[in-house]
């Protein structure tokens, strides 16, 4: 309505705490080619507040125009993001013209992507490409167009909703993880500041105007000085050694580390990059790229340097629910396996069954259906289901092809995808009960064979190990690797069998992936000996799922088939290595 006051955003300078996150956002504002900032944290940790507040302190474009703040909605299409043909202008003026997208609108300002981990991978990859290059190139719908798109990219995500794939995670320049724990003093200060803002937004903003202007001027000075920052030879050597020690892949981390250090030196008003600049930005650059654990001080514990396991005489207490027979949810039913230290067991070669044949075998052989759940793979004697969709009209391409003439002489159609992408999700039991008779090694050998076939088919794969009373990613979702043995051999066995935990985590991953790609085909393989008393009652089904039973003892509990029935999955026994027979003389 006319005369309404503009909505006031909470001032950047007034946000309590979050010093590291503020600094990272400021550095990306000074040097947008850092590639954006990814903020991972729980709800209510001021991620969105800081992102919106940053746009208000950015310097103007020199002509008095304020930098824009653009939000990319989850349901946005590629055309909405990059721009496309202006259909209205074509129909009205019979002229092919470009309709700018969100990337063009964000030029010079901030592009904010909330829940970036839920966006389709194609969109994330596209916006990261543009953020790194500063130029958006559109070759689509009869339009060939490019325009500058230099913006500060800020992505936020809640890790409870799932992670970004490693290939996309690496594309973000800096990554910071916000923890849910806040001191009592900070909680009080945050509530007091928020109440003061809500009572009088304009007055609150006016009281912080001087601090906001000071930040804007400092950003402008740092931007002007950035090109003059000097980096001596030792700086490049320090970065190279640090990246090598962290085991990062490629050189993106080296380039980003140097750019971030330059921006921090400019922010300090220094003429050259110093050790403090390198040290401050190092964790933000390497946190999401590191494959080797950081060096730890003696006696200092971390996620990579956990405390030693308790001795066998003092089994750890379990906080899990009590299952039937008095076992805790983490117990394998075979004694207190959780008291044993992890044990290495290398892969053992097993026959190479076909991915389809493993599921399609009829009852009476090693593989059988444990339920009447519908299968999405080919059964013998049946045709493979066709995924070719009916062609849909492409109205933009049709208008462009007919040059605005009416009636249309030619109708263009969208290209159809021959088949949706496929992901093989493997849940590998690495508990202590799988260590006997080389069961874990044989299971690893099977996973290796599956990886080879998925690699040949250009399909994707993810592997989660569950044992030692926890779930550990062995392979995050990616194109199936040509060789997986080294990763598998590094997965130690031991501890209890957290079956409910891994099934619940797999269900969350499947739900997240399908939100990103609705037509994604996901095949889940649960490879376990079934040595657990945990029930799967109340957990969601995993869809197209195969339970591979690795149990080979003379006395069988037969839990594998029960687990398959509870999941509505197919059932299959682990193929044996050459020259080995099952107990009791079974083949």
UniProtKB/TrEMBL annotation:
The lineage of its organism: Bacteria, Pseudomonadati, Pseudomonadota, Gammaproteobacteria, Oceanospirillales. InterPro entries: AAA+_ATPase, ATPase_dyneun-rel_AAA, ChlI/MoxR_AAA_lid, Mg-chelatase_DI-like, P-loop_NTPase, vWFA_dom_sf. This is AAA domain-containing protein. Residues 290-341, 363-385 are annotated as: Disordered. SUPFAM superfamilies: P-loop containing nucleoside triphosphate hydrolases (SSF52540), vWA-like (SSF53300). It comes from Billgrantia aerodenitrificans. Residues 322-336 have a biased composition (Gly residues). It comes from the Bacteria. It holds the Pfam family AAA_lid_2. Residues 33-176 form the AAA+ ATPase domain.
């Amino acid at each position: 309505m006319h005369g309404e006051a503009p909505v006031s955003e909470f001032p950047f300078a007034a946000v309590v705490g979050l010093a590291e996150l503020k600094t990272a956002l400021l550095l990306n504002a000074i040097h947008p080619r850092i590639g954006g900032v990814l903020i991972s944290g729980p709800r209510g940790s001021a991620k969105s507040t800081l992102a919106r507040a940053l746009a208000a302190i950015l310097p103007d474009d020199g002509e008095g125009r304020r930098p824009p703040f653009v939000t990319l909605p989850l349901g946005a299409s590629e055309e909405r993001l990059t721009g496309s043909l202006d259909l209205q202008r074509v129909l009205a003026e019979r002229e092919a013209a470009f309709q700018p997208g969100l990337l063009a609108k964000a030029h010079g300002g901030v592009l904010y992507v909330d829940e970036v981990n839920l966006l389709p991978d194609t969109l994330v990859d596209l916006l990261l490409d543009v953020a790194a290059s500063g130029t958006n190139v559109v070759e689509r719908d009869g339009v060939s167009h490019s325009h500058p798109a230099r913006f500060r990219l800020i992505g936020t995500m809640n890790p409870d909703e799932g992670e970004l794939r490693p290939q996309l995670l690496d594309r973000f320049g800096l990554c910071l993880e916000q923890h849910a724990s806040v001191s009592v003093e900070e909680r009080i200060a945050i509530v007091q500041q928020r109440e003061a803002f809500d009572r009088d937004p304009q007055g609150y903003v006016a009281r912080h105007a001087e601090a906001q202007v000071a930040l804007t001027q400092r950003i402008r000075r740092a931007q002007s000085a950035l090109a003059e920052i000097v980096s001596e030879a030792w700086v490049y050597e320090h970065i190279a050694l640090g990246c090598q020690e962290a085991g990062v892949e490629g050189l993106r981390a080296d380039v980003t580390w140097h750019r971030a250090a330059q921006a921090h030196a400019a922010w300090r008003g220094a003429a050259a990059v110093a050790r403090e600049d390198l040290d401050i930005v190092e964790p933000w650059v390497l946190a999401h790229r590191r494959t080797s654990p950081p060096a730890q001080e003696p006696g200092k514990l971390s996620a990579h340097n956990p405390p030693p396991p308790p001795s066998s005489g003092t089994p750890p207490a379990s906080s899990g629910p009590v299952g039937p027979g008095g076992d805790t949810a983490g117990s394998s039913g075979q004694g207190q396996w959780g008291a044993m230290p992890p044990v290495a067991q290398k892969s053992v070669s097993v026959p190479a069954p076909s991915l389809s044949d493993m599921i399609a075998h009829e009852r009476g052989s090693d593989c059988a259906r444990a339920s009447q759940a519908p299968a999405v793979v080919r059964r013998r004697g049946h045709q493979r289901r066709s995924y070719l969709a009916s062609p849909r009209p492409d109205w933009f391409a049709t208008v462009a092809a007919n040059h605005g003439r009416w009636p249309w002489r030619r109708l263009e159609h969208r290209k159809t995808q021959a088949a949706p992408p496929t992901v093989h999700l493997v849940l590998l039991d690495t508990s202590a009960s799988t260590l006997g008779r080389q069961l874990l090694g044989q299971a690893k050998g099977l996973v290796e064979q599956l990886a080879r076939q998925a690699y040949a088919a250009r399909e994707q794969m993810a592997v989660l190990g569950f044992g030692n009373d926890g779930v550990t990613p062995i392979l995050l979702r990616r194109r199936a690797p040509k060789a997986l043995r080294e990763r598998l051999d590094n997965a130690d066995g031991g501890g209890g069998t957290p079956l409910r935990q891994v099934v619940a985590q797999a269900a969350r991953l499947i739900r997240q992936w399908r939100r990103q790609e609705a037509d994604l085909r996901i095949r889940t393989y649960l490879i376990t000996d079934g040595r657990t008393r945990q029930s799967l009652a109340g957990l969601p089904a995993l869809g197209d799922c195969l339970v591979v039973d690795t149990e080979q003892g003379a006395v069988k509990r037969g839990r594998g088939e029960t687990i398959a029935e509870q999941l509505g999955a197919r059932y299959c026994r682990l193929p044996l290595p050459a020259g080995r027979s099952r107990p009791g003389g079974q083949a």
